[in-house]
Amino acid sequence: MSGRALLRELLHPLFPDVCVVCSSMLREDEDFCCSACRREFSPFPSAVEAEMMLRSTIARRIGPEFLFDRGWCRYLFHKGSPLQEALHAMKYGGVHALCAVFGRELGEWMLTEGKGEVPFDIVVPVPLHRMKKTERTYNQAEKIAGGLSAVMGMPVMDRLLVRRRRTPSQTGLAAVDRLRNLAGAFSASGVPRGARVLLVDDVVTTGATMSAAADALMRAGAGSISLAAVALAAKE
Ligand SMILES: [Zn+2]
């Protein structure tokens, strides 16, 4: 992290009315990120296009075996972009209220695009290992799921899925190694039989985490798994 970025993160709790990306003062109608930085985000033009790219990315990276029901992601994630900085602040910078902002926005978009249809019964965030959660103090996926659920009305069930072991960082690993890295990492219990689950995370890179989590939920009795993420990592 650059010195400037570090300083900004340290100062942010003291000056919450500045943009998490560029540090300019926010207007009253702006939340955490100024409109100029937001314009640099790359939203998908439609949920249909987002789902197609999510399916093709996951099929290309980890193979066609992961059969999820529906999939949503609001943005395309480019390395070094303002969106990456905003998501980084959300995940590591302690700006946890930003997670709910992204979650609400995602939920509103899903409702608009689906003409009010909500094709799942429960919302399950991808869990962090408890030690990692203690270090970071919160799980960004839980907060995103909370914002999404507040808009869409389906309950968040954040105790069904557990991360049993700490997996080494996935960054830099090929998709096949990510899958191996995650084998048996999750366990699930208490899943309502046949429930249509919406699995929520911040960013989908290869789909390996979602696939491992989905596998545990299906073995525990889920009827189907759909995916929602704030962003899909662009092919680099
Ligand atoms: Zn800005």
In a nutshell, what does this entry contain?
The chain has helices spanning 3-11, 35-38, 47-62, 82-92, 97-113, 130-136, 140-152, 175-182, 208-219; strands at 42-43, 71-77, 122-125, 161-163, 186-188, 196-204, 224-233. It is an alpha/beta fold.
The low-confidence runs, each spanning 5 or more residues with pLDDT under 50, are none
Strand content: 15-25%
Please provide the count of β strands.
Answer: 7
Which structural class do the helices and strands define?
Answer: alpha/beta
Question: First CA to last CA: what distance?
Answer: 20 Å
Rg for CA atoms? 17 Å
Helix content: 40-55%
Based on the coordinates given, report the CATH architecture.
3-Layer(aba) Sandwich
Question: Could you give the order of strands across the largest sheet?
Answer: 1-2-7-6-3
Main beta-sheet annotation = 5 strands, mixed
Task: Spell the H/E element sequence.
Answer: HHEHEHHEHHEHEEHE
What's the CATH C level?
Alpha Beta
Present as ligands are: zinc ion
Q: Give the overall average pLDDT.
A: 90
Approximate shape: globular
CATH fold type: Rossmann fold
The tally of structural domains comes to: 1
